[in-house]
């Protein structure tokens, strides 16, 4: 039997200038538990959120979502992954508009899949693409797959050093998010 599902909600707020102005009491321990103990309140508060979002595609997509939320198409909900070396975390994010163009992010875990630890993120060789949303790896010539499939397909453990990761968004996640945003937009228009 696996571990009980983590029931915490992770909340952070950015102001109208996209600076992080609040993280809740569950957010900081979650960061520390998941290979980011350096993300303390003194490090993240009053900093632009862009400092903590990796990859041009991911930043671009968040900017589009922020525009939607600030245009009154709120809340916006979407699935994403937040994996650790020993766990796949399937999560959901909600972005809601607050006064002054602030945005509240609320994330919670939908399900977890525990696995043998896989550490592919400490890496000094060529770059592999990882989807920031679903955490799948782009396996050259094969498409997007889970990290274990990438390790096997690329024979990564036979190398002296692991490849570095670069963050992007896979076509499937990009399409699903666009569909969600279009549905949200259509529902707002139909209810107006």
Task: Record keyword descriptors for this entry.
192 residues; alpha+beta; Beta-Lactamase; five-stranded antiparallel beta sheet; 29% helix
Description:
The chain is 29% helix and 30% strand. With 192 residues, it is of the alpha+beta class. It has a single domain, classed as 2-Layer Sandwich (Beta-Lactamase). The strands form three sheets. It has a five-stranded antiparallel β-sheet. Strands 6-9 form a two-stranded parallel ribbon. It has a two-stranded antiparallel sheet with strand order 7-8. Strand 7 and strand 8 (143-145) form a beta hairpin. The longest helix is centred in the C-terminal third of the chain and has 21 residues, at 171-191. The protein is globular and about 50 Å long.
Give a quick summary of the entry:
This protein has 192 residues and is an alpha+beta fold.
Helix content: 25-40%
What sort of overall outline do the alpha carbons produce when their principal axes are compared? globular
Number of strands: 9
Q: End-to-end span in angstroms?
A: 48 Å
Order of helices and strands: EEHHHEEEEEEHEH
Described by strand count, sense and barrel closure, the largest sheet is: 5 strands, antiparallel
CATH class descriptor name: Alpha Beta
What is the domain total for the residues? Answer: 1
